[in-house]
Amino acid sequence: MSCQAAGPLGAQAADTVLSHIAGTEPAPIDLALTGTCISLGRRVGVRQLARKDDAVVNLYIGGRVGARVKEMTCRLGVVKIRREARKPGSLVWLKGGPRPEQPVSAARVVTSE
Q1: What is the pLDDT of residue 20?
Q2: If we measure between CA atoms, which residue out of 1, 23, 25, 3 comes closest to residue 91?
Q3: In the chain, how many domains are there?
Q4: Is 105 part of any domain?
Q5: Where is this region: Disordered (predicted)?
Q6: d(CA 65, CA 47)
Q7: What does the pLDDT look like over 62-85, one tens digit per residue?
Q8: Phi/psi of residue 61, nearest 5 degrees
Q9: What is the pLDDT of residues 14-62, one digit of tens each?
Q10: 103 in a domain, yes or no?
Q11: Which domain covers residue 81, as residue numbers?
């Protein structure tokens, strides 16, 4: 759902597959998500900004300008993904900052049977 994350996560997934084939440990994911875009029809949108550690800041771009920013973000994402397909390894992205510690009650435990 996020074109901002699609390119870097796709490149990371490809590197992970290649690492498994080579029998090596894959690199950890280090990605900064700097905000979220939402369309409210073709003419209205919202771009909520965030810090490199994914913490939301009290700043957003809304209305028609927000819709244009979202459209520009999506087009840029597609351009980057296409460039990565033509020239693997060309994609660069912002690295994430230190993450705040999660409270124990918020941690999810996943078990396999």
Answers
A1: 92
A2: 3
A3: 1
A4: no
A5: 92-113
A6: 9
A7: 999 988 988 888 888 888 888 888
A8: -120, 125
A9: 889 999 999 999 988 888 888 888 888 888 988 888 888 778 889 989 9
A10: no
A11: 3-98
